[in-house]
């Protein structure tokens, strides 16, 4: 298959603005659920999702937490500058290191209103635990549309995580055409969010409540977690005519050895990924095992075209290779970076069921869905459009059974 010549125009559909959810529902699990299996579609409520997850199976969630990454500053002239923190400037794979720094921190950022900030520092004041603080920001360098920003704050007795929690706003996706509100701090997080680092939510998980977790336990399902820090690149539109012209964004993730052992144990009993981020991480771990079997000194980074240019190995051999690597290095968890692009023609190795929302026309996420269920993606999306499903981050959900 000539995968790089896949036409983006073949993965477009008409999405009216009125179909894009601007607010979440009051009750997370009251959203609609589209169930796809063997070409058949059911229409139900999300609270019934556990009826479609196999008994005694493994279900995997992304426990990343969205940070209030939008920071607002003022110049001496009064001009308002917005700084959008993307990721730490250092090569650390553990964002928690940067969140715990006191007094200063450097981040790669987007800047809104950059034309009004040519030089110098911008400042902002905020309160934390009834004490006033002042933070300044300064441009250190620029690379295309990204800036390296140095932050300094006084008093220097609180962490950068505490700074942005007090000063920042939740970064809603660009297709939600409103300012973030106080309620978004809760609603735009999954109930199981734990590890800070994302600038976008793993939205498939937004529908889950404790009620669904209790039902899964009653079905003797094993619940496990991984972490992938969702970056702003997830919203990057595909502007090229073919997928070969698109540069896939990279995202950092972390998995532990217990998860890998569970994957081996439950593969024959079905594995469900909650969200495309979970699926992408699991497939990246498999590809790392493929790499290790060829070169034990390889870097844990999966380039976007790697699967299409290298033969795979058995699922068991790959995961065993990763576990053996971790054992030799005495690692309980392992960090990696993935640029993996999943498009039609991709061979899935880990996941049998996918829980996901409905995605933008012509996006890499829609191509992933097409890879998972084939040309029936058109049937699924047409059904959703014709049956009043709500689309995108705050929209309704689906469970796709491969």
Walkthrough of the structure:
By secondary structure, the protein is of the alpha/beta class. It has two domains: 3-65 and 187-401, QueA-like, CATH 3.40.1780; 69-168, no CATH class. It is 23% helix and 28% strand. The strands form three sheets. A ten-stranded mixed β-sheet has the order 2-1-18-17-14-3-12-13-16-15. A six-stranded antiparallel β-sheet has the order 5-6-7-10-9-8. Strands 4-11 form a two-stranded parallel sheet. Strand 5 and strand 6 form a beta hairpin. Helix 5 packs antiparallel against helix 8 and helix 6 (276-294) packs across helix 8 (315-329). The longest helix has 19 residues, at 276-294. The protein is globular. It starts with 31 loop residues before the first strand and ends with a strand.
List the helices and strands and how they pair.
Elements: E1 32-37, E2 40-45, E3 58-62, E4 64-66, E5 70-74, E6 80-88, H1 95-99, E7 104-112, E8 121-128, E9 131-143, E10 146-154, H2 160-167, H3 184-187, E11 195-198, H4 210-218, E12 222-228, E13 251-256, H5 257-266, E14 271-274, H6 276-294, E15 301-302, H7 306-309, H8 315-329, E16 333-338, E17 353-357, H9 364-373, H10 377-386, E18 397-401
Parallel strand pairs: 1-18, 3-12, 3-14, 4-11, 14-17, 15-16
Antiparallel strand pairs: 1-2, 5-6, 6-7, 7-10, 8-9, 9-10, 12-13, 13-16, 17-18
Helix pairs in contact: 5-8, 6-8
């Amino acid at each position: 298959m000539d995968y790089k010549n896949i036409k983006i125009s073949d993965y477009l559909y008409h999405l009216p603005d009125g179909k894009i959810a601007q607010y979440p529902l009051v009750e997370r699990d009251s959203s609609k659920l589209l169930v796809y299996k063997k070409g058949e579609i059911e229409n139900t409520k999300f609270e019934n999702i556990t009826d479609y997850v196999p008994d005694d199976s493994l279900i995997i969630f992304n426990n990343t937490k969205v940070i209030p990454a939008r920071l607002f500053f003022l110049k001496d002239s009064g001009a308002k500058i917005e700084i959008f923190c993307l990721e730490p400037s250092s090569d650390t794979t553990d964002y928690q290191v940067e969140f715990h720094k006191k007094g200063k921190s450097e981040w790669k950022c987007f800047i809104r209103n950059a034309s009004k900030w040519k030089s110098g520092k911008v400042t902002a004041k905020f309160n934390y635990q009834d004490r006033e603080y002042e933070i300044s920001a300064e441009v250190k360098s620029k690379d295309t549309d990204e800036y390296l920003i140095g932050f300094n704050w006084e008093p220097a007795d609180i962490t950068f995580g505490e700074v942005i929690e007090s000063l920042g706003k939740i970064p809603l996706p660009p297709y939600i055409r409103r300012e973030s509100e106080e309620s978004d701090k809760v609603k735009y997080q999954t109930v199981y969010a734990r590890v800070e680092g994302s600038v976008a939510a793993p939205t498939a998980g937004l529908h889950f409540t404790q009620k669904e977790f209790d039902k899964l336990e009653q079905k003797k399902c094993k619940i496990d977690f991984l972490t992938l820090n969702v970056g702003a690149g997830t919203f990057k539109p595909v502007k090229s005519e073919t997928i070969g012209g698109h540069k896939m964004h990279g995202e950092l993730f972390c998995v532990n050895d217990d998860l890998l052992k569970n994957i081996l144990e439950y593969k024959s009993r079905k594995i469900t990924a909650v969200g495309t981020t979970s699926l992408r991480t699991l497939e990246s771990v498999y590809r790392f095992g493929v790499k290790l079997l060829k070169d034990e000194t390889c870097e844990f980074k999966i380039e976007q075209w790697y699967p299409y240019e290298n033969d795979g190995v058995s699922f068991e051999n790959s995961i065993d290779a990763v576990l053996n690597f971790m054992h030799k290095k005495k690692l309980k968890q392992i960090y990696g970076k993935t640029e993996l692009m999943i498009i039609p023609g991709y061979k899935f190795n880990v996941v049998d069921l996918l829980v996901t929302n409905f995605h933008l026309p012509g996006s890499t996420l829609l191509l992933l869905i097409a890879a998972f269920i084939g040309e029936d993606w058109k049937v699924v999306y047409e059904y959703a459009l014709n049956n009043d499903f709500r689309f995108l981050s705050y929209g309704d959900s689906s469970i796709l059974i491969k």
